[in-house]
Amino acid sequence: MDATTRNIQGAGMEIYFNKAVAWLTRRGVSLLGSRLLAVRGRTSGEWRTTPVNLLTFEGERYLVAPRGHTQWVRNMRAAGGGELRLGRRTEEFTATELADDRKNPLLRAYFKRWGWEVARFFDGPIKDADDARLAELAPGVPVFKIS
């Protein structure tokens, strides 16, 4: 099996995994902090949802976008916030994007907890990345503090 075939199969599995996590989260089951993120579309104004991992670090909460500058990230920047959903509970929040120089400890904590899930989005190891590697990754990994 060549790399292209593995990538296509991996993408298919990822779709099923995300659908399963979203289904469970809608029913109130959180897998390692999963939530359903709802953000208004920057063009349509309609709610868009995607499963996310909610990181709690030093008493604060963060959303990390390991896939980079995705649609939900662009929508979050435009909307300035959204909703986190778990079952019937909905929590509105505002979001503040962090500067790259503040991300290292958050990326380290995120990768320690969910590195097994998101490692495929990065070239090279991330779970025990040093400060230089985290600083190198920071511009491509948006992080939002939510309140």
TrEMBL record:
Source domain of life: Bacteria
Pfam families (UniProt xref): F420H2_quin_red
Gene Ontology molecular function terms on file: oxidoreductase activity
Matches recorded under NCBIfam families: hi_GC_TIGR00026
Name the UniProt record assigns to this protein: Nitroreductase family deazaflavin-dependent oxidoreductase
